[in-house]
Amino acid sequence: WWCIFSWLLLVSPFSSACTLESCEGVNLLAAIKRDLEPWRLRGGIKRKDVDEAESWRVHRNQFTRTTNEGWMRVTIASGRLYATHLGAGFGSRDGVYLLVLLELLKKHRDIEDVDFVLSVMDKSHVEKARWPWRDMLPFTLSFSQSPDHLDVPIPDPSFWAWPEKAIRSQWELLADSAFVWPWEKKAPLVHWRGGLARSGGLRKKLASCAHESSQCASSLDIRAAGPNSELWEPPMGMCRFKVAVFAQGEGFTSSKHRTLGCGSLPVFLEYNAHDTYYGRFLTPGVHYKRVRYSLRANATDQDDGGTCVCGDLDRIASWASQHEHEAKGIGAKARLFAEKVLGKPLVEAYLVAVLKETASLQRLANYDIAAVLREVQLGQPAIASPRELLKRFALVDDERNRTEAWERREGPLNAAVASMEGRPCPANACAKCCGHASTRENPSTLVRSPCGKKRTFLPPPELACAIALHSDRDPWGREFDLQRTKQQQQSTLERGASSFLADDLASAKQPAWKRWQAKQQQQQQQQTAEGTGQEPPSSGVSGEGGGGESGGVGERGFALHRGHTLRNGPRARKQLKSRMAANQQQAERGGSQGLTAA
Question: 385 with 98: CB under 8 angstroms?
Fold first, then answer.
C-alpha cells in the first residue's frame, strides 16, 4: 500500500505544482531576498531610506539634468491602502497597480503594515555607485531591474491590464486560440511589428536590416507600424508565426512575456540591462535566441550603429528554417515558462512576498507607520474600493488641468476595472481602451511586409573605420557636438555612407571645445569682413582647428558656453566653478578680450 500511495503521489498533478521556492528550476523567493539584502545588512529599511527615494537626487538624470516625476508613495496600514503623488507617472500604470493592490488585500489578509515608493517608469533609478558611502539607502519598488541599480523589481501592471493599448490580462491572452496557433499551423516567417517611439535607433535598425535583407521575401516579415496602419498587429498577433521577435523599448518592455507565451521561437533584441523581474531567470538557447546589438559591452541605441543586428538576424532566420525541431523545442520551453513561472498564482505570490519581506525589514528597523500616515499621507482617507480610486484620479486630473479625454486617467482606469472584474467595457471608458485581441475580422489573414532593395555592404576599409569609430565613442556621446552630429545624420542619405564616415572620422580627431573655438573664430572673422566690406574667409574646420588659447577662446570658454564641462559629476562641477571664478577675476583685472567675451 505504501508503494501504491507513493506512485499515486508522483503521478498526481499536485507533485508538479509551482511554488516560490521551486518552479521550472527557478527559486523566486531566493531572488527576492537577494534584492533586499543591501537593506538587511544595514539593519532594516528605515524611514529616511523611503523618504530619500522621493527626492530629486534619485529621480534626476545626471546626463540630461531632467527630473523624473513618475513615482508615488504607497502605504498599507491595518489592511487599508493609502497613496499620494498620483497621476504623475506614465499612463495609467499607477492606477492599475493600485487596483491590483486592492484585489490582493482582499485575498491576503496577512499582509502587514508597509510603506514604500513605487517608480512607474521604464527604467531603474537608484544607482549602486552613488549610494554605498551614505548613511541612507533609497528604497523603491520598480517594474524594472538592472545589475547596476538597487531598485527592487516587481511584476508590472500589464500582467493584469494595459487599457491604453486595449491589452487584456496576460493569462486571458495566452488562452486566445484565435491568435495563439499550434506550431504546425504557424507561418514559417520571422515576424515583428511595433512603433519606433521611445526606442531610439534599435527598432529602426531592426526594420532597415529586414527591409534590405536578401532573405526578406522568403523568411522575414518585419516592419515598423503604428496602430492606424494596416500592418499593425493585435497584442498576440506574433503568435501566428514560427519566429517572434521581441525588440526592447526604452527600458523594460512588457511585450516580452507575451512573446514568451506564444509557443513560437522567441528572438530577443536588447541594448541595455533594464529588464523585467523575470528576465534574469531566462537562458539564451533554452528559452530564446538572441540578436546581438553590438560587439561592445557598453553600446547603446544612441551611439552605436547596431553592427551585429543585420548579420545576426539573417543567421537566426537561416537557423530557424534549417533546425525546425530545435526551434519548436525552445518555443515550447518558453511557453511553459510563461504558463508556470508567469502564471497568475505565482505572479501574485511574488508581489505579496515582496510586500511581506519589505514589511519584515521595516519592522526590524522600528518603522513608524502611524507617523507616515500623519506626515506623508496627510490624513487622507484610505482607498477602499475601485470607485473611490477613480474619484481620486478624477480630482488629480482636475488639479493638473487635464481637460482632454486622451490625457485623463478616468477612461483607461474604468476600462481596467471592467476588465479585471470580468464586466463589459462601460460607456465612460475611452473608445480605444475597449478593444479585444480577438476582434479582428479574419485572424487567418496574414498581411506581409513589403521588401526593399538588397543590402549593400561597405568596402572593407570603410567598414574597419566604422568599427574603430564606434569602439572609440563615448556611450553617451558627450564629447561630440550634438548639433554637428544631427547635421551629419540629416545629410547621410544625401551624401552616402562613404562621405559621412570620412567627415565623421575627421571631426572626431579633435575635441568638441576646439571645434567650438574654430566656429567662434570663423564668426568673428565674418563679422570683421562684413564691417570692412572685404571678402569673408573660407569656411571649414582644419585639422588643428585653431587649437590652444591663441584665439582667446579655449576650453574654458567652451565650458562656459555649454553650461557644463565635458564630464559630469561633483568633481567636474567643482572644476567648472573654479574656472568660472578664475575667468571672472581675470575679466575684472582687464584680461584678454577673448576671455572677457566668453
Answer: no
Q: Which residues contact 65 (CB under 8 A, 6 or more apart)?
A: none
Q: What amino acid occupies position 27? A: N
Q: Considering only residues 571 and 413, tell me which one the structure prediction assigns the higher pLDDT.
A: 413
Question: Where is 80: in which H helix or E strand?
Answer: strand 80-84
Cα 39 from Cα 595, distance rounded (Å): 50
3-state secondary structure of 267: strand
pLDDT at res. 475: 32
pLDDT, one tens digit per residue, over 131-148 is 665 678 999 999 999 888
Give the CB-side neighbour count of residue 204, counting CA atoms within 13 A: 10
- Please tell me whether residue 587 adopts helix, strand or coil conformation: helix
Residues contacting residue 541 through CB under 8 Å, at least 6 positions apart: 507, 510, 515, 518, 519
Q: What is the CA radius of gyration of the chain?
A: 28
C-alpha 546/C-alpha 367 separation (Å) is 62
What does the angle CA 407 – CA 412 – CA 413 come to, to the nearest 5 degrees? Answer: 115
The model carries a pTM of 0.72
Q: Which residue bears the cell 528572438? A: 267
What distance in Å separates the CA atoms of residue 66 and residue 368, rounded to the nearest whole number?
A: 32
Q: At what angle do helices 344-364 and 28-35 cross, to 10 degrees?
A: 30
Contacts of 102 (CB under 8 A, 6+ apart): 81, 383, 385, 386, 389
Q: Per-residue DSSP letters for 394-435?
A: HHHHHHTT--STTT-SHHHHHHHHHHHHTPPPPTTS-GGGG-
Distance CA 48, CA 378 (A): 17
Each residue of 304-362: pLDDT tens digit? 567 788 888 999 999 999 999 999 999 999 999 999 999 999 999 999 999 999 999 99
